[in-house]
């Protein structure tokens, strides 16, 4: 009797693990070619790469810095209020 219960639990565990793995793969990030830089929408400290005022990711000093960007799926930036695919001109 106990062997049947253990087998059912293992079978259920494998089903759940397979479902979780499938969901994780489906939610995998887009390829770099499918991404675009979106300027002016970054929260302070959450930029993806260098800005005019610093050279490291995560070092933007103010929210919505027009020179800082995050990578978003292509076509998304135009849908974000204040977003631009080009950095602000000096």
TrEMBL record:
> Which key words tag this protein in UniProt?
Signal
InterPro entries, A to Z: DUF2282_membr (IPR018740), TAT_signal (IPR006311)
Decide whether keyword Signal is in the record. yes
Which superkingdom heads the taxonomic lineage of this protein's source?
Bacteria
Annotated Pfam families: DUF2282
Tell me where the transmembrane regions lie.
none
The answer to whether UniProt assigns keyword Transport to this entry is: no
The residue range of the signal peptide is: 1-32
Q: What is this protein called?
A: Putative integral membrane protein DUF2282
Q: What organism is the protein native to?
A: Nitrospirillum amazonense
